Amino acid sequence: MFRVYATMSERLPLSNVAAHARRAEALGYDGLTVPEAVHDGFLTAGIALNATTRLTVATGVVVAFPRSPMATAHAAHDLRELSGGRFELGLGTQVKGNIVGRYSTPWAPPAPRMREYVGALRAIFDAWQNGVPLKFEGQHYRFTRMQPFFNPGPLECPGIPIFLGGIGRTMLALAGEVADGLMTHPTNTGPRYLREVVRPEIAKGAARTGRDASAVKVMAGIWESGCIK
Question: Tens of pLDDT along 58-70?
Fold first, then answer.
């Protein structure tokens, strides 16, 4: 089963996002991916979600490492609640030059750090949804405190899907290992590449944690629209 997502220009003014999202919904698209380049991805997603009633909206992708997983978790939780379950979280690592020079954030090998990032998000979501103590301790992230005052509580539509943006084999496999799906870049979306590289690498990652590789979705990012299977 395929779902087709519309895209939008990274330079579309925020004042035009609502109309763009409504048009995508009226045209029958299943979803809309919103970029993060000159606008904040979460803010853009919120505008699109608030303007529609059926459309799924995914960040494609927000840059993870300059944000604490806690900040990302709050934004994702809020958008999921606002939309009645129509929000999907797409995360990306970006490259060292941007992380260090544009975001003034320390660089570390991205795959191990992203593995922890996703694990931290899932621990935070679990604490909010199920009331379990927050306890995540890794090399890059440590979360052990969640007072009731800061806990937004459970969602009526839990299970925020986490997609990872990936190009290289390591990140492709990581998506299979820890994520609900992979968002490809337009440069690695050819049918042969998806068949011969993307899916096998996802399967390798899924095997490391005993997951069903077929359950990991692939959102094929092309310049005009996105297709998810």
Answer: 999 999 999 999 9
